[in-house]
Amino acid sequence: MVITTKTDEIVTKRKQFVAQGVSNGCLAIAKEAKGATIVDVEGQEWIDFAAAIGTLNVGHSHPKVVEAVKQQVEKFLHP
Q: Could you tell me the pLDDT band of residue 3, with boundaries at 50, 70 and 90?
């Protein structure tokens, strides 16, 4: 397989290292996300219509959620 994009590289690694029981219909690889918009590793923007319940409620990287996570991580984080 010829790797031509960053997405191809990541998908190839995923196929090599992630158990086949894990499924994902969308092979876009998110680089960052804010609100309802995802930007993939190729720089393409996507509107996220398939987010998890929490993301649908507040959007990706909501400032209040980010701040709450930072405060908790400073107190305790269980790896």
A: low
Query: For residues 54 and 25, what is the distance between their CA atoms, to the nearest angstrom?
Result: 20
Reported for 27-31, long-range contacts at CB under 8 A and 24+ positions apart, including other chains, are: none
pTM given for the model: 0.69
CA nearest to 39, candidates 48, 49, 28, 30: 30
Question: Can you read off the two tokens belonging to residue 43?
Answer: 């720089």
The per-residue pLDDT for range 9-57, each reduced to its tens digit, is 998 998 899 887 766 677 789 999 999 899 999 999 999 887 777 677 8
φ/ψ bin of 35: left (φ > 0), alpha (ψ from -120 to 50), beta (otherwise): left
